[in-house]
Design goal:
311 residues; alpha/beta; Rossmann fold; Elongation Factor Tu (Ef-tu), domain 3; six-stranded antiparallel barrel
Amino acid sequence: MLVYRRVPQRAAGPTVLTIGNFDGLHRGHQAVLARLAAEAQRQRLPSSLLTFEPHPREFFAPDQAPARLTSLREKLELVEQCGVDRVYVCRFDAKLAAYSAQQFIQSILIDGLATRHLIVGDDFRFGRGRAGDFTLLAEAGREGGFNAEAMPTIEWRGERVSSSAVRDSLEAGAMEHAARLLGRPYRIAGRVVGGDQLGRQLGYPTANVQLKRRKVPLLGVFAVAVSGIATLPWPGAASLGVRPTVAAGLQPALEVHLLDYHGSLYGSHVSVEFLHKLRDQVKFASLDALKAQIALDVEITRTYFASRKHG
């Protein structure tokens, strides 16, 4: 898969295109990309995805923007697994935000990408003031030489699939439900970095996974599976939050205690799958109380994984 950090002024050749943020790459997004691949194959053209960085909501109201489900790196890895040929990561800035709907169509869809077939959600809006909609795309396509196709909302067992629904499930601690909407367990990937060694002092060493994001969509203590350190995912217990017992005002941290694992993970790039929520974060009266709770969390985690083996 080829990744471009901008849209060219003049396309080298035609493409079949979809546009969106694709945060989380849930079942609805997967359906769009499957349709994209099918149409690209039918027309014998490359399949392309246009996405924006930062998310437009992060540009206009960074404090009110929801937590991302996936980092850009995570999103690109998931998109590649869906067989997309090209991704254009378009910088969303004041210049792009000022584009009229007509400018967007001409400069990006026609001139920059030579779109022959465009697939978007039926609620897709674009251009200054979100003035552009699917009706405008269809009309412009007839004049500009491309077909516009609207994908209906995807439902999974009677429920509308959306990034918001996934966020709501994660916030509520419904890991299993989030996994059904995503088509896989929710995961966060990152590099293992040095920490304050508190877990080791308490008898439960942790791998501190770097979080390159301002907000996280879930908080608490979880049973997790960690990929990137062995042939099979390794079971563990993870804490994701601001560690209220340690100090006030800390940034969110992801700390994973791997069950019965021995060895250093510093520098490794790992992926943490959140399988089941054990509890919310709690501020304990002392480190001894925290240590006792961690011991309980680890035992509950062992029981959880044992039940999965025999379930």
